[in-house]
């Protein structure tokens, strides 16, 4: 009996030491960026007309690892990653789709892996550059952890990932802006440091087109998302008050205000949906296609008639930008757990329009 107790005690001590080493190492190597980081600057940016018509796409690529075959442990499933073959197949399909849309002016991508075990250390930024060689690409990290120990049965391991803003016009500058708030210690050691990328394009009237690429928190109780949206509100209103033209797009991880789904082939996820408050920027445009879900739950592999879906990818646009069209592109979540959203806008040269509830097809 004493021998068994000694063995058991040794195992517990060993596990405690391993856990302590992981925590200490993760604390020492914690990614803790400043509030503002300049990622790109140009002294010869392209100058756009203040009445230009522009096109945008936002798409969370799910690091090419969250196709329709996947469930995911963070969302109640058990899998950590799909096969290498499926990951590369997903990536090639994503790139093929993007090549067909290469004439889009601006692309806002989220969950783009630079070097991560979950995507077999595939450099997706290089792949995007090869698929869209004539565009400018800027990568901003929001996930940089040397070792994610969860789940215990198959740790996710190293992750370096982030957002990419791609544009055919060359920007004046692109900055990474840190969102305030984070999970408590030690949970924050293994989570994303949420941020957005803010890109500036000079206009003929001396103002700027400001494009924001955001990826807000998920899997929190809503407090982090509220804090982030308050911070973003200040940035958006400040830019508009300076006379700039503002488009914010990305994965907000919450529905637009007063969103009512009109999905044709999918069921809406009614389990604790979260909405941006109705009084959030009431004079601005929330631009989305209510007929196409943009995200699915990863509790199980995708089935159109059973998988819960929602709409959390869209655009928020200042009153001096006119929405012309928006279309969710239903790709059946084949290669990502998100569908892309495409939209067109016209800059109004200083004239504002009343904000509609949404612009849909």
Q: What's the helix and strand layout?
A:
Elements (H helix, E strand, L loop, with lengths): L1 H27 L7 E6 L11 E8 L23 H17 L5 E11 L7 H8 L4 E13 L8 E11 L5 E6 L16 E8 L5 E8 L7 H19 L3 E7 L15 E2 L16 E3 L7 E2 L11 E3 L2 E5 L3 E8 L12 E7 L14
Parallel strand pairs: 2-3, 8-9, 10-13
Antiparallel strand pairs: 1-6, 2-16, 3-5, 4-5, 6-7, 7-8, 9-14, 11-14, 12-13, 15-16
Textual characterization of the structure:
The protein has about 350 residues and is an alpha+beta fold. It folds into two domains: about 1-30; about 35-345, Deoxyribonuclease I, Chain A, CATH 3.60.10.10. It contains four helices and 16 strands. A seven-stranded mixed β-sheet has the order 1-6-7-8-9-14-11, covered by helices on one side. The protein has a six-stranded mixed β-sheet with strand order 4-5-3-2-16-15, covered by helices on one side. The chain has a three-stranded mixed β-sheet with strand order 10-13-12, with no helix packed on it. Strand 2 (about 55-60), helix 2 (about 85-100) and strand 3 form a beta-alpha-beta unit. Helix 2 (about 85-100) packs parallel to helix 3 (about 125-130).
Number of strands: 16
Mean pLDDT across every amino acid position: 94
What is the distance, rounded to the nearest whole angstrom, between the alpha carbons of the first and last residues?
73 Å
Instruction: Indicate the low-confidence ranges by residue numbers.
Output: none
Indicate the percent of residues in helices: 10-25%
Give the name of the CATH superfamily of the largest domain: Endonuclease/exonuclease/phosphatase
Strand content: 25-35%
CATH second-level architecture of the largest domain: 4-Layer Sandwich
Radius of gyration: 21 Å
Our count of helices gives 4
Largest sheet: 7 strands, mixed
Structural class computed from helices and strand pairing = alpha+beta
Q: Indicate the CATH topology of the largest domain.
A: Deoxyribonuclease I, Chain A
Q: How many domains, in number, for the residues?
A: 2
Strand order, sheet with most strands: 1-6-7-8-9-14-11
Order of helices and strands: HEEHEHEEEEEHEEEEEEEE
């Amino acid at each position: 009996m004493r021998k068994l107790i000694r063995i058991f005690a040794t195992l517990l001590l060993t596990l405690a030491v391993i856990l302590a080493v992981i925590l200490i190492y993760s604390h020492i190597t914690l990614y803790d960026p400043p509030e503002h980081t300049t990622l790109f600057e140009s002294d010869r940016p392209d100058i756009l007309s203040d009445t230009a018509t522009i096109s945008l796409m936002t798409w969370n690529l799910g690091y090419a690892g969250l196709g329709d075959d996947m469930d995911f442990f963070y969302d109640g499933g058990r899998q950590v990653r799909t096969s290498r073959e499926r990951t590369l197949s997903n990536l090639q399909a994503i790139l093929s789709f993007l090549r067909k849309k290469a004439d889009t002016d601006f692309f806002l991508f989220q969950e783009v892996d630079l070097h991560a075990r979950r995507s077999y250390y595939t450099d997706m930024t290089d792949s995007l550059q090869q698929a869209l060689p004539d565009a400018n690409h800027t990568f901003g990290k929001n996930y940089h952890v040397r070792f994610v120990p969860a789940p215990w049965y198959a740790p996710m391991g190293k992750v370096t990932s982030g957002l990419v803003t791609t544009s055919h016009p060359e920007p004046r500058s692109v900055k990474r802006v840190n969102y305030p708030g984070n999970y408590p210690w030690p949970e924050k050691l293994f989570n994303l440091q949420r941020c957005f990328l803010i890109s500036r394009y000079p206009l003929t009237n001396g103002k700027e087109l400001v494009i924001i690429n955001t990826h807000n928190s998920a899997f929190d109780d809503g407090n982090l998302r509220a804090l982030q949206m308050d911070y973003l509100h200040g940035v958006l209103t400040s830019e508009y008050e300076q006379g700039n033209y503002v488009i914010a797009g990305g994965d907000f991880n919450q529905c637009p205000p007063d969103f009512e789904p009109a999905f044709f082939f999918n069921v809406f996820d009614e389990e604790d949906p979260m909405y941006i408050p109705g009084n959030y920027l009431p004079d601005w445009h929330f631009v989305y296609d209510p007929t196409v879900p943009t995200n699915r739950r990863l509790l199980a592999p995708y089935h159109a008639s059973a998988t819960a879906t929602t709409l959390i990818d869209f655009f928020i646009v200042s009153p001096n930008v006119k929405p012309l069209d928006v279309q969710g592109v239903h790709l059946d979540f084949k290669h990502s757990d998100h569908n892309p959203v495409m939209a067109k806008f016209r800059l109004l040269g200083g004239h504002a329009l009343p904000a509609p509830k949404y612009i849909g097809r």
